[in-house]
Amino acid sequence: MSSKGVLAFLCAIALAAAAAAQTKTSGTIQCGKPDPQHAIEVGDKPGHMMGIGKSTCTWSPSMEIAGSKTKDGYSISFDEMTGNKYSGHGVHVSTMDNGDKIYVKFQGGGTLKDGALQTDSGTWSYTGGTGKLKGIKGKGTYKGKGSTDGTMTYEIAGDYQLPK
């Protein structure tokens, strides 16, 4: 076997080992109507606004990570709305049942009706954690549906990897 063949073989084994170390997880989180929430009309076209808000959230069913379960958290997002279209990005912090925290960045978009978010979907990735979740890595997707009271329910799925 040539040295290039050996190198390719070793890389394939390393990638397979890294993929095997990832653990899949999923859960459902319900987030309340943003409070506080601030929106400013841009003025370049009708219905174009920029906003920021903070929502408190509760997990049920929880997402399990390394033997601990997500309990509650909050999201802070920066949003752009034009007509019935929405796009946003932000940071989510969840507290686990053992007190550890996970930090997540997210970005996505969806639809609005009468100024209320109806659908939202996108991607997320871990930016860190505390305790036994320090150094967590991983990513996933989310899909949310709005209620008439302004709350959102999100289905979260993804994978994680902890440092050795």
How many structural domains in the coordinates? 1
CATH architecture label = Beta Barrel
Q: Major sheet: order of its strands? A: 1-3-5-6-7-8-9-10
Termini separation: 32 Å
Mean pLDDT: 89
Name the helix and strand elements from N-terminus to C-terminus, one letter apiece.
Answer: HEEEEEEEEEE
What is the helix fraction of residues, given as a range? 10-25%
- Describe the global form: elongated
Estimated radius of gyration: 19 Å
Instruction: Tell me the fraction of residues in β-strands, as a range.
Output: over 45%
Uncertain residue segments: 1-20
Number of helices: 1
Strands, total number = 10
In the CATH hierarchy, the third-tier topology is known as AOC barrel-like
CATH homologous superfamily, by name? Answer: SO1590-like
Q: Assign the CATH class.
A: Mainly Beta
Structural class: mainly beta
Largest sheet, in brief, is: 8 strands, antiparallel, barrel
Report what the structure shows.
- Helices cover 11% and strands 62% of the residues.
- The chain has a single domain (24-161), classed as SO1590-like (AOC barrel-like), CATH 2.40.350.10.
- With 164 residues, it is mostly beta strands.
- It contains one helix and ten strands.
- It has an eight-stranded antiparallel barrel with strand order 1-3-5-6-7-8-9-10.
- It has one helix at 3-20; strands at residues 23-31, 37-41, 48-59, 64-65, 68-82, 85-96, 101-113, 116-129, 137-146, 152-161.
